Each structure stands twice: as C-alpha cells, then as structure tokens.
Amino acid sequence: MASDDSHINLVDMSRMQSIPKTLPRHIGPASTFPSLQPLSSVLRTRLFYSQEMTVGRLAIVAIYLGIMLFASLFKNNLFTNSKRAGYVAMSQVPLVFALATKNNIIGMFAAVGYEKLNFFHRFVGRILVLLVNFHSFGYFYRWQLEGTFTSSMRQPSHIWGVLGFAAINFVYLSSFGFMRKRFHTLFFVFHFVGFSLFLVAIYKHQPIMIPYVFAACGLYGLDRVILRSIKTRFTKATIRALPELNATHIQIPGINAGWRAGQHVRVQVLSKSMGWVGCFEVHPFTVASVSESEEGMVLICQDVGDWTRKLYNLASAGIAAAEKGGEVGREVRLMVEGPYGGLGCTVVSSYSAALLIAGGSGITFALSAAQHLLNCEVKGQNQVEVLHVVWIIKDPASVCPLIPTLTSLIRQAQCSPMSNLTVNVSIYYTGTSRASPKTLAMLDTIHLGGLEMRPNRPDIASVITETIDQTVKPNRGLASGKDETRYQGMIIAVCGPAGLGSSVEAGVGKVDWARKRSVGGVEVCEE
C-alpha cells in the first residue's frame, strides 16, 4: 500500500478560522446517570461461558422464554393437548425471519444493526424448534397410547407435519457455532433449503397457517429482493497486498459517499480466481475511509480464512506484476452491499473525549471514526477535545503500512492553532516481529508527539483513566473556555476480537465512579 501518497486522512484544518461552530447536541445515555450506574454495570457484565451474552441479554431471553412457556403450558397438558404449542410455534416464524434480514424493522426502531440482534434471532429460532418438538412428540405420545400411531402417520396432513418437524430439526442441527464459522456457505444453503421445506410443509399440514407463511416470505422477500437491491452496487476496485499486515487493501473509487463512520459493507469478488464457490461468497468488512473522500471507499481485509486468503493471493499477483514494471495493484469487479451496522444513534462528535480501541483489523473502524471527527472539527461540529486511538497487534511490523495515515491524524490536529482537538495514538504489540532489520530500524526512527509504541497488552483501566485525566485537567478547560463541571462524557468505541470487548468492559468497571462522573460519564459501544 502506497500510504505515503494516501489522502484518506487529508483534512484542510486551515478552513476552521472562517467556519462558525455549530456543536452537536449531546444526549447522555441512561447508563451514565449516577443512579443507574450500578444497574448498568451489572447488565453489561459478560457471562463466563460466552463473549457475546451479557446479563442484560440473558434477562431479555429469560423473560421471553417465560412468556413462550406460559403461552404453551398455562392450564394445558402437552401430553393430552399439544396443539397449542404448535400455534405458539407458528407465531414465532415471522419474528425469526424478521430478525434474520439485514434491513429489519426491529433494528430500525432499536437503532442497532442486524448483527447486534443476531443473538435474539438464534434464541427465537431455538424457541421455535423447542415448541415444534413439544407439539410433535405430544401427538406421537398420544397416538402411541391410543394404538393409532401407524394409521395416524398415513394421513397426508400428518406426513407433511412430520416432514416439517424433520426440516426444522435439520436447520437446528446444522446451525451450531462451528458450522456457522467454518462452513458458512454450507450453513446458509442448509438454512435456506430447510426453512423453505418447513414453510411448505406447515402450509400443507395446516392450511390455516398460510398467514404466517406469507408474512415470513414477505419479510424475507422485501429485504432480499427490494431493500438489498437498492443498497447494492456493481463496481470496479483496485486490490493491493499488504504483507506486513497480512491483509488486502481494497480501493473503490466509484463509491465515495453514503456511509457513516464505523459502518461495514458486504463484499463479493466477481472473479474466477476466487474459485467456483468463493466467487459467490459475500463477506462483511468495516469501511476504513471517511465518506466523500477523494480515494473513495477503502477496505482492509485481513487474511483470516480460506476466502480472504484467496483474495490476498489474488492481490499478491499485483506485487509480482509491479516488480516486472507493471502497475501496482490489480483491478477486479466487486458487488458491494450496504452499508450496515455502525454506532447507531450515537453521535461521537458530541462527547468531550473519544477512546477508540482496535484489535488487529479492527483498526479500520478506528481510522474511519477518527477521520470523521477531524472532518467535524473542520466544520465546527465537534465537541471532542481528546481523541485517543489504541491499536493492539501481534507484530510491530504490521504498523508500517499505516504509519503515514496514523501520523497524519496527529499532525492535522497539531498544525491548526484554532483546533482544541488533541489526538494521541498508542500502539501495543504482543509478539515478536517477523520484519527485516531495515523495517525495525525504520520503526525506531519514528519520534512524533502523540504517537507511541509499547510492548505487551495495555492496561485498559489505566488507558481510560489517562484519557479522562487529560480531558478534565484544569488548563484544558480554561483554554477551551469550557466549564470544567459540564463535560459531555467519554465514548469508548471497540472493534476487534470478541475477547477485547470483555476486557474493555472489565476495564471500565475498575475505574472509580468519581473519575467517570468528572468527565460526564463513560459509554461503551462495540462494533
């Protein structure tokens, strides 16, 4: 990646002198209120057996499970009357499909991306499977007691019922975590075939269920055929291999607007070099550039699986061509769908401090958010006074392709006398370097105020404390004309491995409430 020539972080800070400030209004979350802080801390506590499940989410699913069991079992015996369990099961089908879509109405009202609701989609799906089994085995038990099992199973409606029972259990058995992660394409095919068969079977089993079938098909069709088509672009892109990052840099000049900081897009590479299966796969990547930039949309895709490895090998062919005198990079055709996700209604520029913590390829999220804040500072629409970017990596050589980008963030804030924004970048590396001595010597020559490299993992609580103290120190409040007692809080945005979010939550819990209150409260968002 020719980062020395990159302009994705270039912001004209000199324009600030002629632009009046229109600061965004800050609405603090309920979790930052003193009276709700203990409850918020408990609800955000992650359970020991899952990096995804928190106490708050567990409470939601427990309440929902109780409602479903009450509807199925209240004044009812499943062994003598399991019909009610079937009706309750069918009531869940539209909800399962609604939560499975990328553009669902629940996420729109909750202001969260589909990925944040995926845990509830899986849970409601399990409830559906459980109730279908209650319904089916109740009838099996009754027929066996009455001695009519064989004759009952010959009836066409019952045959279709057994087929639906088998289909939904097949979907469940093919949806375990290892299947979703290691064989996602196969998982999707099994899901599609299984649910298609299930919908047909329940209609043939009980035609009265047709409204539920139509509702499920309508929700899925609206998302898949209409909404996703509106959000899909076919375009050309230039891909380059980044050996130090073990990643692929994708530049899409044909798309330069339409997303917010922290959002991701789903990418399909239309090339036979990706393989007959790989060219049909779609994968999500966080946008690393800011909207309306000269270079367009920029993605950094780390090599973490078969598909990304094929993409990296395809990009590496461009390096070989460049060594022979050809152009750097290789042009490919892409299908880009999105954007999705992001921080929802959270306005990062309305806080007094922002701490962006990234692990590995999560730096794309941090870069996009940091660039957005610099743009807001130029437009006079930023309240953030301290921006601290923390990047955790294994190999210090991974920094090399992004050093110009990271240093430009700091220099732009330092070079403007009208700016109150201070930018700090801390890079923590946890392993030994595979880089050449020349590369390591280059890293040793980097001396820029605001940029530091440290070995080992960061102490998250100490990083949070340092950022708060830098924000609320007396001379900063006087210099900016801000009343020290009226800070707008600190936003901590996290992007990286699942364990990183748990570490950040634990670190926030270690910071005493008095210090968090001094900055106006601390809010954690995870992308």
From TrEMBL:
Q: Where is the FAD-binding FR-type domain?
A: 227-346
Q: So where does this one cross the membrane?
A: 54-74, 94-114, 123-141, 161-179, 186-203, 209-227
Subcellular location(s): the record lists: Cell membrane
Task: Name where it mostly resides.
Answer: membrane
This protein's source sits in the domain of life called Eukaryota
Judged by the first EC level, this protein's enzyme class is: oxidoreductase
Q: Topology in the membrane?
A: Multi-pass membrane protein
**Sorted alphabetically, which InterPro entries does this protein's record hold?**
FAD-bd_8, FAD-bd_FR_type, Fe3_Rdtase_TM_dom, Fe_red_NAD-bd_6, Ferric/Cupric_Reductase, FNR_nucleotide-bd, Riboflavin_synthase-like_b-brl
Q: Which family does it belong to?
A: Belongs to the ferric reductase (FRE) family.
The UniProt entry, under PANTHER family, shows: FERRIC REDUCTASE TRANSMEMBRANE COMPONENT 3-RELATED, FERRIC/CUPRIC REDUCTASE TRANSMEMBRANE COMPONENT
**What name does UniProt use for this protein?**
ferric-chelate reductase (NADPH)
Q: What is the lineage of its organism?
A: Eukaryota, Fungi, Dikarya, Basidiomycota, Agaricomycotina
